[in-house]
C-alpha cells in the first residue's frame, strides 16, 4: 500500500491553552453571508465510478468549480470583509502557491483594496495570470511557500499592509468551514468526509462544521506523502517543519502547520493519511476520464486516498475536490504519468531472431493482442545478445493492467524473451 496514517487519540486532543483563539460553529455560520457575497455554492455529484470502487455511495464536492477555481476564496472573503477602514486603506499582502492568491485578489478587488501577493518561483502560470487578472501585484520569491510567507511578513512590517494568512487565522478557518455546512445540507446522511490538506485550514473548518451537527461523521485529511507535515507534527504534539518537500501537488505543499490549525486538527479531525505521487496521478486521470472533471493534483488527493484503500471508509463518503487550477502543461504530464502508473503505457524489451520479417511478425502479434505501438527502437550491439539476435525496445499503449499482462503473456507464449521495463 502507498497509504500511511496517523490516527488521533481522543485523550490527546484537549487544547493546550484555553485562552488560545479558536473557531466555533457560530463563527462559521456568521461567516456564511460574507462568503456568499463572493463565492458560490458548489455542486455535489454522485460518482458511480468511485461508488463502484468503494462499494458504498460516494459523492464529489466540486470546489474545483468554485469561483477562482478553489475553496480558498471562502476564507479570503471573510478575512477581507472584516478589515477596518484603516486596514483597507493600507492594503493587503498574501503568500500563496496560487489558489489563496486568487481568492485574496478577487476579494480585495471587490472591496477596492490594493493587494500584493508573494508567490514561489515556478508557481503555475495560469495561477499567476489569474491573480494578476484580479488586480493584484505578484512578486516572486525563491523557494517554497514558507519563503514566500516570510517575504510577505517583511512587506507587512515595511508598509503596514495587512497579512492575509493562507490558513492560520480564525476568519480563514471560519470561511473554509462554510464548505462543511454545504456538505451536510447536500448529503445529510454522510458518514465520512475526506479532505485534501495542506496547512489545515479547510480540514479543520470542515471538521468543526460537520461535527457540530454530526459528531459521528468521520473527517479524514489527506496529504501528499512528499509534503506531509501533519503526521510528524501530530506524533510530536506540536507543529514540526519539514526539512524538504517534493510533490506535484503544490496546492497542499505546506511544510509547517499553523499553530491554530494544528490545535484544531488535533481536536476535531479523526485521521490524517498520505498518498503517493502515483496515486495522485491515477486519481487525476480517472477524474478526467470517468467524471469529466478537471482537478489539480492537490484537488485529487481525497479521491486518491479512496482509490488506494477503498474498504477503509464507511459510506456514504464525501470526497472534496478542493481545486481545479492546473497548468495545461502539467495536466499533460500528469495524465501521461497516470497512464503509465495504470499500465496504460507499456515499455518492453523483446529479444528476437535477427532475420527478414522478424520485426513484422512481432508487430503482428502485438496488433492481434490489441495493443498500439507508439515507438520502436532496435539494439543490435550488446554483450547479452547472440550474433543472430536483436533487442527491440517497444513503447505500447494498452487498455490497462489486465490487458498489459495479456500482451506480455501472448508474446512469451510465442517464444519471445520479454523484459517488462515498466
Automatic annotation (TrEMBL):
Residues 1-20 are annotated as: Disordered. Residues 7-17 have a biased composition (Basic and acidic residues). Residues 347-422 form the ACT domain. One of its GO terms (molecular function) is L-serine ammonia-lyase activity. InterPro entries: ACT_dom, ACT_ThrD-II-like, Ser/Thr_Dehydratase, Thr_deHydtase_catblc, TrpB-like_PALP, TrpB-like_PALP_sf. Pfam families: PALP. GO terms for biological process: isoleucine biosynthetic process; L-serine catabolic process; L-threonine catabolic process. It catalyses: L-threonine = 2-oxobutanoate + NH4(+). Its EC number is 4.3.1.19. Keywords: Lyase, Pyridoxal phosphate. It is an enzyme of class 4 (lyase). Transmembrane segments: none annotated. It comes from the Bacteria. Its cofactor is pyridoxal 5'-phosphate. Catalyzes the anaerobic formation of alpha-ketobutyrate and ammonia from threonine in a two-step reaction. The first step involved a dehydration of threonine and a production of enamine intermediates (aminocrotonate), which tautomerizes to its imine form (iminobutyrate). Both intermediates are unstable and short-lived. The second step is the nonenzymatic hydrolysis of the enamine/imine intermediates to form 2-ketobutyrate and free ammonia. In the low water environment of the cell, the second step is accelerated by RidA. Belongs to the serine/threonine dehydratase family. NCBIfam families: ilvA_1Cterm. This is threonine ammonia-lyase.
Amino acid at each position: 500500500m502507498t497509504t500511511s496514517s496517523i490516527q488521533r487519540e481522543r485523550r490527546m486532543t484537549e487544547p493546550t491553552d484555553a485562552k488560545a483563539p479558536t473557531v466555533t460553529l457560530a463563527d462559521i455560520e456568521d461567516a456564511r453571508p460574507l462568503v456568499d457575497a463572493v463565492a458560490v455554492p458548489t455542486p455535489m455529484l454522485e460518482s458511480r465510478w468511485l461508488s463502484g470502487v468503494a462499494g458504498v455511495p460516494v459523492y464529489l464536492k466540486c470546489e474545483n468549480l468554485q469561483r477562482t477555481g478553489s475553496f480558498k476564496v471562502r476564507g479570503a472573503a471573510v478575512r477581507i470583509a472584516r478589515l477596518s477602514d484603516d486596514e483597507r486603506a493600507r492594503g493587503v499582502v498574501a503568500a500563496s502557491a496560487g489558489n489563496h492568491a486568487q481568492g485574496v485578489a478577487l476579494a480585495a478587488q471587490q472591496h477596492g483594496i490594493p493587494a500584493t501577493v508573494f508567490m514561489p518561483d515556478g508557481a503555475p502560470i495560469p495561477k499567476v495570470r489569474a491573480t494578476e487578472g484580479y488586480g493584484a501585484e505578484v512578486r516572486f520569491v525563491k523557494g517554497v511557500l514558507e519563503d514566500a510567507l516570510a517575504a510577505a511578513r517583511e512587506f507587512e512590517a515595511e508598509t503596514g499592509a495587512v497579512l492575509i494568512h493562507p490558513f492560520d487565522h480564525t476568519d480563514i478557518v471560519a470561511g473554509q468551514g462554510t464548505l462543511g455546512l454545504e456538505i451536510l445540507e447536500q448529503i445529510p446522511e454522510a458518514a465520512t468526509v475526506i479532505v485534501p490538506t495542506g496547512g489545515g485550514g479547510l480540514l479543520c473548518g470542515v471538521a468543526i462544521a460537520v461535527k457540530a451537527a454530526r459528531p459521528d461523521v468521520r473527517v479524514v485529511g489527506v496529504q501528499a506523502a512528499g509534503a506531509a507535515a501533519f503526521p510528524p507534527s501530530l506524533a510530536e504534539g506540536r507543529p514540526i517543519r519539514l526539512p524538504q518537500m517534493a510533490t506535484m501537488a503544490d496546492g497542499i505543499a505546506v511544510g509547517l502547520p499553523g499553530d491554530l490549525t494544528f490545535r484544531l486538527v488535533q481536536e476535531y479531525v479523526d485521521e490524517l493519511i498520505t498518498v503517493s505521487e502515483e496515486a495522485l496521478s491515477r486519481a487525476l486521470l480517472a477524474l478526467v476520464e470517468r467524471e469529466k472533471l478537471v482537478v489539480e493534483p492537490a484537488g485529487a488527493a481525497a479521491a486518491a486516498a479512496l482509490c488506494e484503500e477503498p474498504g477503509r471508509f464507511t459510506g456514504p463518503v464525501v470526497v472534496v475536490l478542493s481545486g481545479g487550477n492546473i497548468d495545461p502543461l502539467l495536466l499533460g504530464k500528469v495524465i501521461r504519468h497516470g497512464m503509465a502508473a495504470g499500465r496504460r503505457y507499456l515499455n518492453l524489451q523483446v529479444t528476437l531472431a535477427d532475420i527478414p520479417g522478424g520485426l513484422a511478425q512481432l508487430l503482428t502479434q502485438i496488433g492481434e493482442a490489441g495493443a498500439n505501438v507508439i515507438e520502436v527502437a532496435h539494439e543490435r550491439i550488446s554483450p547479452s545478445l547472440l550474433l543472430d539476435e536483436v533487442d527491440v525496445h517497444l513503447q505500447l499503449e494498452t487498455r490497462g493492467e489486465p490487458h498489459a499482462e495479456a500482451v506480455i503473456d501472448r508474446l512469451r507464449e510465442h517464444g519471445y524473451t520479454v523484459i517488462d521495463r515498466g
